[in-house]
Amino acid sequence: MSVTSPRRSPGSGGAWGRLSIAGKQIVWAWAFLALPVAFFAIVRFYPTLEAFYLSLTDWDLLSEPRLVGFDNYRKLFADPVFWQVFRNTFAYLIFGTPIAIVLSFVIAYYLDRVTFLHGTIRALYFLPYLTTAAAMAWVWRWFYQPPPIGVINGLLGAAGISAQPFLRSVDQALPAIMLTAIWAHLGFQIIIFMAGLRAIPVSYYEAARIDGLGEGAILARITIPLLKPTTVFLVVFSSIGFLRIFDQVYNMTSNDPGGPLNSTKPLVLMIYQTAFSSYQMGYAAAQTVVLFAILFSISMAQLWILRNR
Fold first, then answer.
1. For 70, how many CA atoms within 13 A lie in the half-sphere containing its CB?
2. pLDDT tens sequence across 188-199
3. Which tops the pLDDT comparison, 16 or 271?
4. Concatenated DSSP letters for 181-232?
5. What percentage of the chain reaches a pLDDT higher than 70?
6. In the chain, N or C: fewer CB atoms in 10 Å?
7. pLDDT band for position 11 (50/70/90)?
8. 112, exposed or middle or buried, with CB in 10 Å at 0-12, 13-18, 19+?
9. Are the C-beta atoms of residues 103 and 182 closer than 8 Å to each other?
10. Using CA atoms, how far apart are residues 260 and 237, in angstroms rounded to an integer?
11. Burial class (CB in 10 A: 0-12, 13-18, 19+), 283
């Protein structure tokens, strides 16, 4: 009497059949991740490594790159314009990020309690974020114009205050542009904070009120601690945005980009001018590497500090 061997199901043999369920899940995960990883390797990682190489060369786009070692970095750190631009960049970061975070949180906190026309008000706050940076910058440039054209100087004149130079002043130009950048991204930060507020369970607030906590104590002990992940994300996002600020500066000071007297010029604008006005691609690449190091260091430091707290 012959015994018929059981038929094997397709895929039951071989290496795939010997894999556990967890192993198969890992294989499928990497199969789906292969395309994005390849994309980032080609589009992101390779240009980054190429920038490191170019920073060690002298290249003007016409001739072959010539290795010069660290000459570009020595030239950069000896350039007084770079240190002024460095201070400008950190001024945008140090003053712009805290103001943007605090202001967006306060607006989101009180807007979350509004029931009348809540959606309309939220959309109005978010609308500037959808506006193109160039159009928004030119509108604000018009606002800052001297009288009788400038709207802000017109309001100041109506209040009996003398006209201000704003974008034509070495002292006022940077704060004026910073205010524009804060306003442009305020809507996005408000929406993110509101999403974080809505994610906090209502039962926490109910239990706190039953225990007799006031609104101030609830804010300090429940709302702000539970918004920590949202705050960490927005602080890092906002910091990167201010360190990479370009559109507002370039469009609002287009007669003298980064002026007056380089008082508003950030590092990204300096890189742009070095590369596409002076055609010093190696020197621009060295500036890019410095910017990358700043962005990476500050982002990692912020994540470490805020998470540990």
1. 5
2. 999 999 999 999
3. 271
4. HHHHHHHHHHHHHHHHHHHS-HHHHHHHHHTT--HHHHIIIIIHHHTHHHHH
5. 94
6. N
7. very low
8. middle
9. yes
10. 28
11. buried
